[in-house]
Queue: 4 jobs
Job 1
Amino acid sequence: MLAATVRVVGDIGVAEECVQEAYAKALSAWPVSGVPTRAGAWLTTVARRRAIDTLRRQSSQERLFAKYVEEDVAPLPEESELPLIHDDRLRLIFTCCHPALSLDTQVALTLRLLCGLSTAEVARAFLVSESTMAARLTRGKKKIAATHIPYRVPSTDELPSRVDAVLATVHLVFTTGHTAPIGTDLMRRDLVERALQLARMLRELLPDSAEVAGLLALILLTDARRGTRIDLDGALLLLSEQDRGRWDRSAIEEGALLVRLALRHRPAGRYALMAAIAAVHAEASSWEATDWDEIVGLYDLLLATWPSPVVALNRAVAVGLAEGPAAGLAALDELGDTRQLSGYNYLASARADFLRRLNRRDEARRAYVEALESCDNDVERAYLRRRLEELEQ
Amino acid sequence: MSEYLALIYEDEAGFETASEETLNRIMMGHNEFGEQNGAALRGGNALQPSMSATSLRRDASGKLVVTDGPFAETKEALGGYYLIEASDLDQAIAIASQIPAEFGGVEVRPIRVFD
């Protein structure tokens, strides 16, 4: 509804006001007249009418906009409303995820305007105060208005790079929810659900994009483990300890199908490759039965298309699982100088695990302590502390 | 339509040490940019190097203070600009991305319109 209204007024702030007024009108009208059969369409129509009224009152230059708008806003045949709304959402997502906005702002605008989270909810998702988030959203909307960030689907030339920006935003929402960077809970279910909802929306809107299929597959396959990642006492369970019988089979099937589709596109993109790695795990009957050589091979391809220190770290861990802890440690030490990874707790904890398995207890202990120093998630901290205590016995 | 100022920020040392050939290539690049985007260009100039700048400000008592040099000393200095007319930011970026700026980059700012 918001998306359809933005298309009318071309200004997100004004559109939000119109939508709020539509809700207010519904609150007073529906108890008297009853809830209309197509409540969503009713609200959209009211918000649009309100938007057109607003435009009528605006300056002459903006009146031109209203003229263009009125031409196709006049009573729409109900059937045509669905594709129109899809189109509007697609435009809105490209506006919210415009590269001229900072990634933080892109994510905040997407959650607020596309997922319909309140400012307070978006603030909670990022563990900042509501006033900080309100200011961030306002700055974002002001930049959109002042610089005339267009409200349309990018041209074919620009599309791939702009889709990348959208996917990066949705992926960030997912990873933030999958393992919360800070706080008492391992996961933020609300963010995972939003990411899944956005990825499904994109898949529907851009059915030909292999990377969109890849991201949806990645989310489905990773999130299929959701019920098994902590035990009854809330302690972290590693991939090797999880009860695979309780993984979500229907999510895995859907994800596996999407991975195959995404991998048909050559060269395979980063989300398709990450999803393929998740699929190898999802389809292995046990930790021991995991095809680690396949996983290392996929990480090699991923590193070639997306050379990031975090990917290199994950590859080194996979090498250790394929060839033993000594090989893993050697692979990790090769990345030792990657500055971006210093202070990244997964580097220290991966080293610690390999050292522990090599029975180099003192070094392992120091590495667990180092990992603890840079880890802010309580569930992960409890896991690291447990390992440390085992070594001190 | 809106107007955008494309500010060209480059490392001046790049120009000082560049060969005649490089400088000619850059000049030709600007000519070409002008020809290809003539319809959208509302103006543009190259500036003398930042050492030629004179900064003016008033001190606490309101007295004018004139100093030698640019307002802010940065590695990449403002060296020129184009005024571009475009329908939206994407179009402005599409045009500004063709500006030769091999020793730096281009900042795009919308012109503010007062009602």
Job 2
Amino acid sequence: MTQVATPDSLPADTGNIELAFNGREYKTERRGDKFFVRARSQGGSYGKPQQIVITTGSHNLQILWLETGEGRTLQQFPFAYIVPEKMWAPTLATFLIPPNVKEYYSTGAWNGGCMDCHVTQGQSRFLAGTKWDTHVAEFGIACEACHSEGRKHIELNRNPIRRFRIHLTTKSDPTVANPADMKGPESGLACGQCHSIWAFNNMTDKIDFNRHGVDFRPGADDLSQRFVVQPNTADHVEQKDFIRRTEPDFFQNRFWDDGMIRVTGREFNGVQASPCFRSGEFSCISCHEMHLDSPGQTDAKTWARTGQLRPKMDSDAACLQCHKDMSPRLVAHTHHAADSSGSRCYNCHMPRTTYGLLHAMRSHQVSSPTVHESIAYGRPNACNLCHLDQTLAWTAQYLHAWYKQPVPELSQDDRTIAAAVQWILKGDAGQRALITWGMGWESAQKIAGSDWLYPYLIYSMVDPYPAVRFDAWKSLRTLPGFVDFPFKYTDDDHSLRETAERAYEKWQREVRNVNTVYPPETAIDSDGRVKQDVFQRLRSERDDKPIFLAE
Amino acid sequence: MSRPSKPTRHIGEPAARNLRFGWWSLLVFLSMGAVLETLQGFKIGWYLDVGNETRRLMFTLAHAHGTLLAAVNIIAGLSVRTERLTLRPSVSFALIWAAILLPAGFFLGGVITYDGDPGLGVWLVPIGAALLFYSIARIALDLSKRK
């Protein structure tokens, strides 16, 4: 969502911060209820103040936008506020993007991109160069975003007799769209109009969208000027070929190689590709709700911080709504104790394989874990995301024994070294981010043990990608002895190395139990050191292709 | 020497009815206040959940109107003692029924709710409001006529 910048909508210290990044220094000040930023090159004098006019994001990350003096064109304040940590960081360091990228979402980016989904009924209105004349109906995600146009509905329902007639008879009002009354695909698309990877059908539609805003109205069965991009489906072949030609990294930056979505905020791609979706009933509101009107719903803050779920939908109840027969044969199906994390539907069928906003998130493509997905597409499978200390061979053996899955051909490393260790040492930045975050997951720590996680998390605190370093630090803080460990994940390389060395010393001297015996799959010696031959070999094989998870 | 006895102040039957009703009504609605506090105290979802905001509002209105109108009935009953006011039977009747229908409408409107709208019981509220308007207006007029 977008909010006008006010003392209530901005982080508390916004009027009094001094930050430096990329050779420039920034200083903010508050005048009444308005906030301003001045910038200067290091050593120079501060320039003209620019007003902070709006902010996007509210639960996880807040990005501020500045006036430019060029009409309604906005410029990004280069620092974002990480809400749960109550800290400012360079915006570039809050996305999983290559460390050499120097600019992401700059002047005009809000007008030309963010506002497509972060407002209701926006019109970008490109003028020329980096100039825009943007208009919006409402800054927040308001009623009409999901319920379509409301003028007639509001006018007619001023009459209480009409309202009561509806309450007591049809219970649904034809003058307004209601995702709860729609079939699954239409209902899902009401959310998916934003929560998906979408593209324009053609240049004419793009221009129309830019000038007049979105044509789609909730209740429709397609996005009108746009379409939901699924890499491997047979629709929109021409448009997808065009994307491949003009933006070669488009799919790699958003999807796993089998077409499963890997960035957060685009959950409808996953929902649409789920087998459950074929029933025609399954949609986002099978588990989520936007109005907190279910019995047992708690306060708005909790709801907002727990995935905006309906009550009890953070449990097996979400799946058992349809899979009613599964309840009595739960253990026979899962082969795990009924009360264990291995028997929770979500953990196996919606593992955390999407990433964004500095954390791993559950995939919304309901699927079953396979070793094949890890070997062929590099996606950590659900089994090894929990059993961090086990090899792919171990997983393959159980999936074969329990579910008759074929055992794929596996390398020597896949038979002897834990999958998580391989991903963290030789995986690409996307895999490393998922695993460093996953090492802080309580359920995984209980199953796989946590004694051996320290050296890998400390090693990851010097990863070239800031997002990986941030997750490593967050996960390290879940372990005994490091709860309050200070670390500035955006520091320079020298400081990062120093802090990591300090953390390692602390672990070796103060935290590590010298009697701990580490499983051989973790590649850690009895003295708590990662086996150097394994480490050097896997590290040298690290997949350093640039990863740019475009949220 | 015996003191002369005070002149007996006779409260008319309608006024006495309003006085009795007022005190009993006050008891009922103050008790309702205690019940609402208890629902708050024990965090009862049926009353406190985010989706039950309309119910909370309706019950609060029932409690407030019931208490206030009980006090109005008591004041009306006592006002007769000033000998400046005679409570007409119709006014007495209207005041009592206003004090029943208004809070009852809000209360029933909160028992079953429809999204942002209260339940059907809320239709008792305008009837009660009309009775209240009649009785207050009548009292004001009657008082104005007396010198």
Job 3
Amino acid sequence: MDDSYFNEDDIKAPAWDSGLAWRMWPYLRVWRSHFIVAVVLVLLGTAVHIGLPLILGKAVDLGIKGKDYGLLLHYVILYAAGHTAVFVLSAARSWLLQYTGQRVLHDLRNALFTHIQKLPISFFDRTPVGRLVTRITNDVATLAELFSAALINVSSEICILFGIGGMMLALHFKLGLAALITTPGLFYIAWFLKVKMRDAFRLARAKLATMNASLAENVSGMSVIHIFNQEPAREAKFDQMNLELRDAELTSVFYNSFFVPAVTVFTAITLTVVIVYGGWLVSRNEISMGLLITFIAYTQAFFDPVRQISEKISVFQSAMASAERVFALIDEQPEPDLLAGEEFKTLHEGIEFRNLNFAYTPDKPVLKGLSFKIRKGERLAIVGHTGAGKTTLASLLKRFYDYQDGDILIDGVDLRKFSRTSLRLKIGLIQQDVNIFSGTLLENIFLADDRFDNQKFDNIIKELEMESLISKLPEGINTQIYERGSNISAGQRQLIAFSRALATDPEILILDEATSSVDSETEAIIQKAVQRLTSQRTSLIIAHRLSTIRNCDRILVLHNGRLVEQGSHEELLAAKGHYHKLYELQFSSNGGN
Amino acid sequence: MTLQAENHPTPQQFTVQLLAPYKKYLLYGMASLIIVDVADIMPPVILKYAIDSIERGQNFATLAWCGLALLLTAAIQGVFRFFWRQFFLGTSHNSVYDLRKALFAHLLKLPFHYFSRTRTGDIMSRLTNDIQEIRFMLGIGILVVLDASFYFLTVPFIMLWLSPKLTLITMTPFIMIPVMVVMVKNSIHNRSRDVQARLSDLSSRAEENLSGVRVIKGFRIEESEISRFNRCGLEFVRDKIKLANIESLFHPALDLVVAFGMVVLLYFGGNMVIAGGITLGSFIALESYMLKLSWPMMAIGWIINIYQRSMASMERCLQILREPPATAADQQQTEPTGTGAAIEVSDLSFTYPEAAQPGLKNISFKLGEGQTLGITGPVGSGKSTLLRLLMKMFHPGSGQIKIGNVDVAQIPLKSLRELFAYVPQETFLFSESIRENILFSQENKDQPDVARSFADRAGLGSDLRDFPDGLETMLGERGVNLSGGQKQRVSLARALAAARPILILDDCTSAVDTETEQKILASLRQNARRSTCIIVSHRMVSLQNADLIIYLDNGEIAEMGTHQQLLEKNGRYARAWQRQRLKAELEKS
């Protein structure tokens, strides 16, 4: 509706937010022993790394310049041992980090997915599916990458950085200082570029999310695009987004391109300082040639971590951006504990709506002061125009939304005292839009593996007379149904919706226009089943067609969120009001010629 | 530029095609790279002169000149390293822009059945994750390949110049590298492919779950969904760790080979320096060059890895591009369209690709221009299938469909679709404004008045006033969610606005209340009088005015005729009609 919704991805936040970083702790903590081992491997690796140039220097001074073949061999063996240790340590570290990283990623992905499952329906009303998929896949991967491999690797680089720096100062303070003198300048440049790089990166991510959302939509609606010959128009629209993404990426590349050259220049300056000043020191016999060679090796090794870290800055940037979005999602208020409250088991007296007001958005009330009662075992029909608020009633009963004002009472007890779980399971809702998942017919009916029940399944098939439908499917109940049910008909989808409701054996049944897209023969079957179901259960039938509600005990007529009439069919007809008008129209279209 | 996969290019050939338009930038990039690398291989030689001068105890001036030379090489590198990144990385972003564009354009051309058998998440994964892999190869990958090649082609020769004997000895361990590379190449490739496939499964799973979140919450199966997702995730982790097993050994092993070169150098080089065979400066320069070679060595493993991954990803993108477009047959088709919108179907049969029984059997009927056809029948009797064949979403198994006296097989798809306005059973609207949705097929979408008039005709007028921004109200994921009936009416308005000779209503007023439906039907009778109409409905009253009514059962025409004829036949149609009529009578009493 407004721009802020779609541009949510553009939110600004600090570059390194230690608060955000701390929030990763619970996911890392589980694997802390793995991380401790990794850190030990890192420290050992650092020690060997720092030791190798020293061995080299000693080999030059004592072996080569000392012309001692035996001592040279001694150092060569030490040197070889050092490199072998590097191999073992880095292979172990690499494997451990990949392993732990994947486990952390898996935990985080599950935590996010689990959290999303707990969010209220209102959250899904305002969030595109494509964006959530990006969060669960890409953002989580980037984040886990940072907190496992990147962070440990960068710590390792930093250890080497400080180790070499400290070693240089310890070996020869003045030469060490001279070698390190340029480092603050490099850090300053890095800091300056960081901000620019982060902004550019964030923009690129936002554009990517926008493009992905649009892509998912276009793929889902492909048949509509085809039928209306709108390929060129959609292509142009997509191209616009694609272009914006590319340009954002190019800006990001531009700022990134400054960093590595800067490191190169600083390496060369330092090397020059070491050679010229160090060479001068050697010529004055203040240091040995071996020490100069150790320093040269250190200088070359010193800037390699800087380069590595700079390469990883982009990983950091993107990970912080991902962290913001992932934790923003985790901060979304979930529905309160679905099990909290009393368990709703059976209805004893009835349901009462008392002066109920409800609005999805504050300025647009959907239900206005609605009051009525459903008695236990009663079959109540609700009729009214499209958008009169009928469907909303079903959502409120299942506690998909919380109402602001008024009461819904079950046996005189506030609806909100009952747990959402029990309400959702015991109030069966059959909706007009049937969501079919990829999986077998059986899985689509029971939805969860642990609910599968052979006896129940046979009963459902019998009640809905689905034998002929099943025999038409190539592999019967084990036939794979594609995503969105694209290989079965709308009527078959509707039958699945009915079966699903039967499978949970609900106490209260809500039919939301469920029979609307079924042909008359199937409707007869379903009407029979509905008849059987509703005769044992309190039921609320939301329908546009009066034919589906002729068996109802009482009819409520809603208009613009208000209850305008109620009574039996005969009473309402006699009243010659709103219902009468609806009825006349239905009759004239059914019987007129 | 057009990227096509018609000649069945290999992933490698296609990569070349993809880069072709940016040849110029790649050349600039290569020039920058050569300048950078030349400047980068100078320092060890400069180092040699510096150390040798110190060893000889020469004056400070030589040392200063060496320092200056070092700074100069650094300055050159600084400038051109900026350019090489710009050119190579910039090209990668430009190329994947083209690839995405080509993929999307191709997706738009693919036939209906492609989308019914392919999961959205799978397509999404190819257009996001796989493209990411490809971009990595095209950018950093190419840069590193060229960089590494340059070092391999120059550094060994400088080393030979410094000391042929020592170079030959120290390079011996390097023979191991190609051996190692060949050994692991295939397993890395296969395992990467598995990882990509698992990732695709995972995002499909998430996508499907999130799209059906209302059902999931309504039936309280969140926990079961979480454990399903968990299983998917574990499979991904398992395959990813299989890949890590190889990768984490491979890269350090390459390093080790270089390290052994250094060890050999220290031993033999040291001995040679002691014996006076080479200077200490040359020894240090050789040591430096060995270090410089270690980076390209490491890069080999890394490049092979991303090359394998990107080619696997490219293959997955090519799979989309290789899918024959729905318009593939259009080249041979000469007839644009026939004259008029009369429809003649003769002996039409059709079986869905994976179905056990035919969806349609021996369907024949004729419908004059401007006439209305009503289709009814039980669930799964082939009503929607017939419509899909008419609109050429599928090709008939046997038999013929003629529109305007021309076989539809002869009509190019694009021209054929100009004939139809379709209101599908499953409403699909875009996350755009109501206006844009109604004027979906219009070139100029900036005509609020036109949109409003079609909204009125579809019975949406009064609802519009209730929406926060009227016609400009944003729909779907980005805005408000309409009720089922409102969605159907927007969909109807969209079809009416398309103003095509044949209007198809596929059971599309099911979620609209009676009062509104009456208005809509009346307005249709008035405004669509010249159109040929096909109405699929379960409600006989919607069909009774049709010029021809077909009662389908099990893919066959059970009964056919006008309302009156079918009633006289006293068959299934008549029985269904009676049933509906009886209901109305009951309600009346």
Job 4
Amino acid sequence: MSHAASHDDHANGPPKGIVRWLTTTNHKDIGTMYLVFSLMMFLVGGGFAFMIRAELFQPGLQILNPAVFNQMTTMHALIMVFGAVMPATVGLANWMIPMQIGAADMALPRMNLFSFWLLAFAFLLLLSTFLMPGGAPASGWTLYPPLVLQTGEAFPLAIFSIHLMGASSIMGAINVIVTIVNMRAPGMTLLKMPLFSWSWLITAYLLIAVMPVFAGAVTMLLTDYFFHTSFFNAAGGGDPVLFQHVFWFFGHPEVYIMILPAFGIVSEIIPTFSRKPIFGYEAMVFAIASIAFLSFIVWAHHMFTVGMPLAGQLFFTLSTMLIAVPTGVKIFNWTTTMWRGSLSFEPPMLFALAFLFLFTLGGFSGLMLAIVPADYQYHDTYFVVAHFHYVLVPGSVFALMAAVYYWMPKWTGHMYDMTLAKWHFWLSAIFVNVLFFPQHFLGLAGMPRRIPDYASQFADWNMVSSIGAFGFGLSQLLFIWLIVKCVRGGAPATAGVWDWPHGLEWTVPSPAPYHTFEKAPEIH
Amino acid sequence: MSAADTGKRNRSLTARLVLMAAGSFAFGFALVPLYDVFCEVTGIGTDKTLTRAGSADGQVPVPGRTVVVEFTASVPAGGWQFEPVAASMEVHPGKLYEAHYRARNLAGRATTGQAVPSISPMRAARYFVKTECFCFTPQHFAQDEERELAVRFVVDRELPKNIDRLTLSYAFYDVGQARGPG
């Protein structure tokens, strides 16, 4: 391939100052912007979680009135899902996929920049709804009608911001697919591709398949609200349960959109610190693909209690449990990769191991929820909250932190403060369990989710959970301090960074030059 | 391979992926009729079929079998007083009966109501045949008007043997009142 970007002057870096960030089409710059944006949203969403846990510290209403409490839970979820976890994975994709497959840049660099700014604008719009009469959306991130139709002036803004973030995700996904399909270095066959890139290729297809369905569902809400259609309005012949079906047809693949890139990250890290290639590479690829396929046929397990024929309940129970098979293959292969490996426990490995244990725990509570008669008891309780936070926080978020600790020396050219990173790890790992484990007990004891006040028998575990939340939240300040320190300086990182680097990204110097692989590397 | 080639392949793949996204968007809307089809095939019934007149032709009463039909009512959005006249009745499958609901307009103005029926258990829905029902048409009420509304029904003699009790439930909505900022 000839030099596609030959109009750039390689000797000079990017333009200085703010202009660089507004006009850049460089995959590394855009990746950085996504990651910084995601970290900011993680703090905003975390701040909302802080307020939720402060209110739930004791029974009774202390600091938030119920309407604001509902806005907090809704915005916490929307921001963490669409503003923190997803953009973080997109940022990593931008940084690492071209470097892992030996491409000079993403295939569609200008669309890349557009999708980033669209996302930033979408969240500005979403956050501005706090200033509207009636406040921010308060229906939960699931936006079920008829409740969501009671949203005040914020309603059209919230829907439009969802449209924008959906469009942004779809463009990001298209970019990833085109890059991986067309831009791989000669000799980089699909089955030589690193697992992080593989996980993103499959995630991107999921995004294209389901984000537009979500866009359709919220468009129907919009027309029900403004144009008197009756998609979900029972008085006009519609059915609110239909919304739940359409939403979860999107929503279940969506949760895999948040976890599959995490699987990819862990599949990069565990071999490095076991000093062994991944065990069962093809099985890992096949497992991701199977999970992606199954994600389309399990959606109704989120809504067992709406009233469903027995055959439907059985089908969705069994298809849900089937997911444990490819997921089990992945857990088994990660464990087997470590078997007789030469293990060392640098921060990325610590986070990856915590992921392995705690994600599995979240998976098990998911299996419990898949059992219909049990789900009738657990539905809409804190048990569900505990389940999905286990798979998302020590699951996805820990994997994302592992990725930052794994690749940051490559990004900045500096080694970070290992001691500080280990403090961050241990504090996070302990407090995340103090935070979420008691929520299992609360849920089994019958505490409903999304309530600002509760009966006094739930007081003790709520207090423990809130203490865990404050500890976990404050520990993240260490993470930010560590990142700032690492960007500003530190011991210079070598090209390989780690003892047993594997993959093309470790063949370029640290920090990675502004342009890499303009001449395609040779793959052996 | 030249840069121009790559650019061309990128554009064509991008176009195909955009089409795929557009297809997904259309599929989201296609789920609406598909949902009705699904409810129809599984016998749960849809708003269209549950509010369509059935026929009692060919039904012969089964004197030896009785089934309890319970009546419930709800007013999800307010504005009405709405309740069954009798909470339940014992019926013979195959025989035509009439039951009554009483509705009163509390909206403070003339308005139109629409009842939306549902049958429980779900698999009994296809055996509950309404020959006439106030739920087939919107019901106009003058201000403060109160009146009785009738439903004539027959429980199909083919009703599975293990069902001896079914519930007819109506939710009563105001159709005259626009939603949203209107």
